[in-house]
Amino acid sequence: xxxxCDGRINANMTKLELMQSWFSRVWVDGDASxxxxxxxxxxxxxTEFDGxxxxxxxxxxxxxxxxxxxxxxxxxxxxxxxxxxxxSAEYVxxxxxxxxxxxxxxxxxxxxxxxxxxxxxxxxxxxxxALFEQLGQLPEDALMACLTGQKLxxx
Length: 155
What we know:
Strands 1-2-3-4 form a 4-stranded antiparallel sheet. The model is unreliable at 1-5 (pLDDT under 50). By secondary structure, the chain is α+β, with helices and mostly antiparallel strands. It has helices spanning 15-28, 35-38, 55-70, 128-134, 142-147; strands at residues 73-83, 86-95, 104-115, 118-126. The chain is 30% helix and 27% strand. The protein has one domain: Roll (Nuclear Transport Factor 2, Chain: A).
């Protein structure tokens, strides 16, 4: 992902540049220390987004887990929209997979409310089901099997 601002937040950044920098620094580079730059002080340590994720406390561990699962990866914003203080990005995460042997290409969506060039609210949707299928942790077409009523049996 091209980062037009070298990753550092500045007052002249557009919402698109802010979001691209978020993906680049926090996710691709795994820089959890950058959370304080991206997240508004209004977001406390235990503030939850999407009803389950407290980004200041839980994102650092989630970032590590994702890196362990997929290895080095890139993220690209493929669609972006904004209106007033909200913005939305559809993105794709690509990787050669762990040890370069299990290619991964998974999409997601992030919506965020921005105030003073920081995120004050966000919601994300990531196709974790597809990720685990591509990593071989779920059988191919597992979602279709589940939709037919079949049960997955773990050996």
